[in-house]
């Protein structure tokens, strides 16, 4: 995992025209999205439509990602970051836990930008698999150039689930997705783009990557 330094990021939403600043504490983020091989080792399941050990796992819901984080934490002797409430329909995050978790969207955007201010951390064809170059398929992780902090596939290949609710007053339990995917046009593969989906939603261009809190 890569240690991401503390910083400040301005989030924005094109739908509402709103922007807001967030202070981000230092944290750790996996250099790559979770792969199919890693997911199968922990869960015993291979949910993805395409198959390949080094392909990002996809076809996973937000809930699948949360359960994977807890399972991997327990396997590695760490304190799980999430407490799933009775009935399995709500979850709380333990901010002090040292286990694996999903990044917040502020952490995700701060990590994606890697100190830059532009919409991308390099020329899109050099850093991301998207509709213009992916050949209508997903690709193994790490096949494009990383950003300045050593993080790969922050844009393109698969969208990353984030911890945050998108807009609970309007969309209820919908969670944030970031980064763009292999089937998206170039305008979706930008550091600021926000997408939303129901936490039970599964599709072949949505995966996730792991974060950990720095104590």
UniProtKB/TrEMBL annotation:
Residues 1-212 form the Sulfatase-modifying factor enzyme-like domain. It comes from the Bacteria. Pfam families: FGE-sulfatase. InterPro entries: CTDL_fold, Sulfatase_Mod_Factor_Kinase, SUMF_dom, SUMF_sf. This is Formylglycine-generating enzyme family protein. It comes from Streptomyces dubilierae.
